[in-house]
Amino acid sequence: MTTTEDGPAGRGGGRAITSFTVLYDGGCPICRTARKWLQGRAQLVPLEFVPAGSAEARYRFPGLDHEATLRDITVIGDEGSVYTGEGAWAACLWALADYRGLSERMGSGAARAFIAAASAVRVRTRDFDSAPEDFGSAAGDYGDGCDDRCR
């Protein structure tokens, strides 16, 4: 797997990406909201969401640093590319029908500042008591890693 900070629009050659797996922090209200927003948009490239650090993530992607995936969103293309940081956000937008153009502008200073601010807020709002494997089993849970508090 090759890790990159660039989104898929900036990579050349290789097999075409036909799907992405998004490793998101299920203990983070921002990540849960972003997941819900992404799922509600028309997708040119299907997005599958797996809680970062979960048993499923560790099984499917044994070569990843799973502690790092809990610190920053990670997106894996079906052809083996791995996007982190700004590249992961750009990959998610690139997958959406109405946001592909925006993804190609993600290298701007404003986009970088937004992503840095979101990451800082995410660290302060994460629910560290929630284990990734437990999402979907709690009473009141909606099966998407989001309980009554984020509805």
Describe the structure.
This protein is of the alpha/beta class and 151 residues long. It has one domain. The protein contains six helices and five strands; from the N terminus they run E-E-H-E-H-H-E-E-H-H-H. It has a five-stranded mixed beta sheet, with helices on one face. Helix 1 links the parallel strand 2 (20-24) and strand 3. The longest helix is centred in the C-terminal third of the chain and has 17 residues, at 109-125. It starts with a strand and ends in a 26-residue tail after the last helix. Residues 131-151 have low confidence and may be disordered.
Write down the secondary-structure element order.
EEHEHHEEHHH
How much of the sequence lies in strands comes to: 5-15%
What structural category arises from helix and sheet content?
A: alpha/beta
What's the multimeric state? Answer: single chain
State the low-pLDDT regions, or none: 131-151
